[in-house]
């Protein structure tokens, strides 16, 4: 299961609107890729199609797609959006991460 905070839902919808991505055209893909300070990094992308083995979640009109390999690393993830003096952007609260880098976009298990 993947959770989205209210702020994350609002920001995803705002970006989708700004980029003129229709709701029916797909969703947000969350992936884990190699790299970053801690070894693994999160990648967010809008995509129109799911892949045959994708895990699909929907919350408040936002669809999330995750490939099976990435899902092993992000199961239980909460995606949030923070805006403020310490920076603006998506934050990842991942119960599977043993450590994270200071910027919060890479992690290790």
Would you mind describing this structure in some detail?
It contains two helices and nine strands. It is an alpha+beta fold and 109 residues long. It has one domain: Sandwich (Hypothetical Protein Aq_1857, Chain: A).
Keywords:
39% strand, globular, Hypothetical Protein Aq_1857, Chain: A, alpha+beta, 3-stranded mixed beta sheet, 109 residues, 6-stranded mixed beta sheet
> What characteristic shape results from the CA principal axes?
globular
Could you name the ranges where pLDDT drops below 50 across 5 or more consecutive residues?
none
The total of beta strands comes to 9
Structural class: alpha+beta
Q: What's the structural domain tally?
A: 1
- Summed over residues and divided by their number, the pLDDT gives a mean of 85
How helix-rich are the residues, as a percent range?
10-25%
Radius of gyration: 14 Å
Could you provide a short overview of the structure?
The chain is of the alpha+beta class and 109 residues long. It is built from two helices and nine strands, in the order E-H-E-E-E-E-H-E-E-E-E.
């Amino acid at each position: 299961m993947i959770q989205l905070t209210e702020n994350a839902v609002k920001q995803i919808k705002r970006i989708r609107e700004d980029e003129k991505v229709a709701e029916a055209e797909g969703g947000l893909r969350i992936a884990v890729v190699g790299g970053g300070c801690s070894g693994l990094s999160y990648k967010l992308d809008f995509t129109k199609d799911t892949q045959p083995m994708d895990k699909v979640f929907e919350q408040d009109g936002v669809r999330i797609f995750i490939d099976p390999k990435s899902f092993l690393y992000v199961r239980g993830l909460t995606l949030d959006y923070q805006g403020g003096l310490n920076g603006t952007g998506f934050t990842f609260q991942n119960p599977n991460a043993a450590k994270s880098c200071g910027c919060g976009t890479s992690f290790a298990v």
